[in-house]
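Example record used in the benchmark description.
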Amino acid sequence: MDIKVVVITGAGSGLGASLAKKYSDLGCHVCLLGRTKTKLVRTAEMLNYRHSIYEVDVSSKNEVTKVMQVIKEEDGQIDLLINNAGVGVFDLTENLDGDSVHQMIDTNLKGTIFCTQAVLNDMKKRNQGYIINVISLSGKRAKLTESVYSASKFGTRGFTENLALELEDSAIRVLGAYMGNMKTELWDGAYTEEAYMDPDDVADVIMESIKSRKNVFVEEVVIRDSRNKH
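Model output (structure tokens):
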């Protein structure tokens, strides 16, 4: 399928910004979604082709539904949705306050569900489209100080696998991307050059994984730093 319109949540920095730049370089119209306009503008300044900026809180189903409708009307049918928006608060379980718990579940899990729901009907009508859910390795294994973050990612993993099952008889493709820690704002101040991956490298692997190939489709991809054995 020829990808013309790409929607990326959490496009203001990190992996979202890397994916935006790379898809823009391919000539796609990239729609940058996020909560902070200044970050989205910063990403937009790197892009070579036509793009759009939309301020949205993905945890709000109403906001998501409205924005996706505007994108369809102003930019065209959505060919690729990348659910990349994510929030992480890392501490022992008993130390996490209610706001932190809600924020992680609402953004990481509900946000992915709401954005997917908003594009599914049109993709089904055309019987084409791609949905990439950026999940992280925290959706596959336990890690200290990540109890609720991991719970939100395990939930997103379950949603992704069930969505793929629902769509297995269609031409719509779903990819779950599980990666280790990257040099992004989510891990600001925590990483060292040796232990954390470059978002550009991760973006390359994800994009390669959804390329059309005869009789082949990648349903999930696990990406980790080769220097990190755990």
